[in-house]
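<tokenise_the_fold>
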Amino acid sequence: MIDKIKLVAAILIIVVSIFAYYRFADVMQLARIGIIIAGVAAGAGVMLTTATGQSAFAFIKGANVERQKVVWPTRREAMQVTIMVIVLTIILGLLMWLFDSLSFYGIYDLVLRVRGG
């Protein structure tokens, strides 16, 4: 029950900071952005004290560990794959055009005996 109250409080802190941003429209823009940043930081701090917040933080940490394991292709590998995709797209486009032309010829010229044109 306390976790739910903390989550509601965290959401309210963020909502109040957004409300303050628009309420104090006559105040300097930098100060209003500071209000938003402080509100989000305070809301996140309150949320991290809950079980849900801690599990979300653990998930984010795990996702970062997995992101660091990714092996990105070199520039040469990326260029080779890009060229292969372009060539295959052109080949498939030509094949589809050929099948379309043959089916058009087959249907209109051979079956219906209508000259296409």
